[in-house]
Amino acid sequence: MAATTKPRTSSFSRNLSSAHSSQTPGLKHGPNGTTFISSGIPDLDKILCGGFPLGSLVLVMEDAEAPHHMLLLRNFMSQGLVHNQPLLYASPSRDPRGFLGTLPSPGTSKDSKSRDSSAEQEKGLRIAWQYKKYFGESQESVNAIDGKYEFCNDFDLRKPFDRHFFSGKHVECVSILDSSSLSTTLDRCATFLSQVPRNDGNISSAGRIAIQSLCAPQCDHSNMEWEMLSFLRSLKSMLRSSNAVAVVTFSPSLLLPSFSKRWQHMADTLLSVKAIPDEDKELANLLTGYQDMVGLLNIHKVAQINTQVPRILEATTFSIKLQKRRFLVLECLNQAPVDGSTGSSYGSTGSCSGSSKTGSLDF
């Protein structure tokens, strides 16, 4: 009788349990055969419907008045270190490895706990508070450093990584300051991407490339517009055949308008950051929570891998806030005359399309 009750499985059916178990930590499977890695910001991952697709080029347009792009770059690099993913960092500084000491370490915030509370209730996780107070904090720190239970962590910007944490990591640092051409940097990228090739089987590892201020004026190649454009084109073609994501920041004001447009066209995902003036009374009267904002994030383009259907976002401009001056949070902008409450984190919605919640209008 036991043999007769055994369910029959077709040879064409997919074994979901084995596919889920073979998934590499730090990766998430999406539609159309797309695999995502985290940007290091939970709200940005939900805005982009998963994160950064493997094999894509992400460009971040800097603000000449504030280094807000470094917030995105630091979280992107730290998330790769948590997941033990190979990292290549290129910078116009003479000692790029010293920048690793400024990377934030994973932490926990009340907002992240509230996001996962509903999921924990669904899973039936019931731990008595008497036991949680003894091993809760240590268990959370192990999970955060391990990276096996979190696709994206909340990073404490005021708590840097310990230097001994980089000893066992695959981290390469390159200085583009003294290089007269970008061929050396391109060769380093090619060697790095050859370690994470794209195969038909399961993905064993994923790499991250972070390039800061590619067209910095202190670099010798800053006036070689065509060479920098050729570098981006070659980098994008190499990323397509690898399991890696490259995030490159640049300042559009340092490029000619025609070349700036070409750079933006090369990007799979295009973002821009902008600082908020300290005393902008018009903007303060227009938006709620203005005093807590440190900048604005604009999403100009979203990667479309393995599909020709454009992705429509609910909003393209978000406020950058620091929760408790530690954790990076993105929030939808609220207009003060319509809604007097502060904006809610985008992570609370968890939706990529559809109409946003609007209150009823009283006439």
TrEMBL record:
SUPFAM superfamilies: P-loop containing nucleoside triphosphate hydrolases (SSF52540). Residues 1-34, 98-121, 340-363 are annotated as: Disordered. Its main location: cytoplasm. GO terms for biological process: tRNA wobble uridine modification. InterPro entries: Elongator_complex_protein_4, P-loop_NTPase. Belongs to the ELP4 family. This is Elongator complex protein 4. It comes from Cucurbita moschata (Winter crookneck squash).
